[in-house]
Specification:
The protein folds into 2 domains: 70 residues, no CATH class; 110 residues, Tetratricopeptide repeat domain (Serine Threonine Protein Phosphatase 5, Tetratricopeptide repeat, Alpha Horseshoe). It is 74% helix and 0% strand. The chain is elongated, with a radius of gyration of 35 Å. The termini are far apart.
Amino acid sequence: MAPTVETQKPPASPAAIPAAGDVTFFTPQRLRLLGYAGAAALVIAAAVWFMVTANHRKQEYAGRALDEARNAAEQGDMGAAVQGFTRVVTSYKGTGAAYEASLGIAQARLVSGQNELAIASLTDFLKTNPPDFYAAPAYGLLGTAYENTARWGDAQAAHRKSADLAGVEYLKASALLDAGRAARIGGKRDDAIAIYREILEKHGKTAAQTEAQIRLAELTGGKP
């Protein structure tokens, strides 16, 4: 019997083996993943668009309400002005209009002679840690309310805080003049002298220079 010879299959031709570059990228699985990713991107984009447009509308509505309250104040109707400002504060928290409305409430109350109410509203407002841009004038109004009630030490401290927070030099100098006035009237001569000298040394190029020189001369008998 003749020996059996096993026949070996020839090796597969290289052309029969798919090269890496021939593999289809857009498989059904990948297409599904891309579809999910695209849908998620659309949802995110829609959410961002909604938030931006909603915030824009909120700012517009707040601005209109603020203007209405200001118009009432300009016409002398302080009661309506306070109500309008209060609505802006409660309805549009966190907006610039709400911060301005808080200041408007205090201003209306100061004009009406309601100094204690102005002090209370400003104190509450400042407890919320508003941005310096709004905190600086708030402390200035608070200082005025304290002056109106002859609380000179508190007025001096409030005006000093306003000066520290003010972002513009002439506003710093103006607030320091107010602090100097409160110190001078309150009998704190040395404090007043120090404040006026500070104005001349640090803010001598502002409009506050002349008054600081005059007040300093009055307190020191003409000595620098």
